[in-house]
Amino acid sequence: MDCPSKYNGTQNPEEWLKEFRFFCLLRGIHDEHTMLELAMLKIDNTIPIPEEGISSFAELSDHLKDHITYTLQCKVAFEELKNIKYDTEMSVVEFIAKFLSLCDNSLVLNVQDQKTCLIQACPDDISRNVFRNKIKKKTSMHEIIEIFHDTMIEHKGQIRYGSRIALKHVVTGQYLSHGNKHKPDILRSNLSEVFCSGWKRGGNDVWVITAAYGQNKAPGDPISSNSMIQLVHEVTRESLFGDEGQLNLSGAWVWTLTDPRTNWIIQRHSTLYYDSPGYVMDCDIINLRHNLNKMTLKSHEFKNSAGHQEVIIHGDGQEDLHQWQIELVS
Question: Tell me, what DSSP letter sits at residue 171?
Fold first, then answer.
């Protein structure tokens, strides 16, 4: 280990002194007075040592903290603390370690102040409100951090407008899919058939959830059960389509346009009819009910003319064949 660089006011005083003491111990220097003398020799001349001298490391630490550079360090750390945001792609542990370090460096040591900063660090208003309500009466920072961790893990698994997802048919294990280009139907050229294909997810099995036709939703907003959505095939950019008529049995298609026939109601699957509240989460079992004809997306082992597993729109959603597992695609 090399000798720590000269202290010039840009380092945290306590951290620098701890590192310097560690270096001395590695070099076999155990005498406190000797270590203190060596430490003072490594302090920049812009931070003068008082004429009466310094008799302990605690006194030296206080002296370094009295200098204007430490005041500025605290101000800079506080600005960073106010602006820090948790990114759902980062490790919660790494984020909390940085957060606590900034609290220490900015002298934000009161639990209530730390709570306020951690609430502001939530990635969006939804998670912020959930977290705020959960910690309202909490006074232990340890417990507050545990709740933050659990809230962010839950937040990370939420299905949102703009999410890239795949739908795996629960009974057969195959994914809702479409080819990599539009294949016009003989009677209606704007339509192209969807199907289930493969037990391993591929590029043609990825769909993007967007706001329903006629609705405005902000990308990133979580989707609650019984919301109306559109599903857009990522490769072809075509929307999952269902006929508006009350047909007893209808095929499922993608559509080159968007209109009310591309709107679907996403429902968390429940043994209770239409009743499984809450946000839709990664790996939830769902039904997709067409907004106009009220029938449900279904698959079974019958094959279409191309030899793929058939997908149809049929029934009220209570059969096992209506169940799909929704998977977030990173």
Answer: T
The whole-angstrom separation of Cα 185 and Cα 179 is 13
Q: Which of 114, 110, 154, 146 is nearest to 130 (CA)?
A: 154
Claim: this prediction has a pTM higher than 0.70: no
Cβ neighbours for 299, distance < 8 A, ≥ 6 positions apart: 169, 171, 172, 174, 176, 196, 309, 310, 311, 312, 321
pLDDT in tens, 263-283: 999 998 766 555 567 889 999
Question: What is the b/e burial string over 107-144, where b = at least 16 CB atoms within 10 angstroms of the residue's CB?
Answer: ebeeeeebbebbbebbebebbbebbbeebeeeeebeeb
The one-letter amino acid at 11: Q
Rg (CA), the chain: 30
Per domain, the residue ranges of the chain are: 13-66, 70-156, 164-328
Residues 99 and 84 sit within 8 Å (Cβ to Cβ): yes
Q: Are 310 and 303 in contact (CB under 8 A)?
A: yes
Cα angle for residues 283, 296, 318 (degrees, 5° grid): 75
Measure the CA–CA gap between 286 and 282, rounded to whole angstroms: 10
Q: What is the pLDDT of residues 84-93, one digit of tens each?
A: 999 988 899 9
CA-to-CA dists, residue 179 to 91, 176, 233, 327, angstroms: 36, 11, 10, 19
Token pair 């460096």 is found at 105
Q: Does domain 164-328 have CATH number 1.10.10.10?
A: no
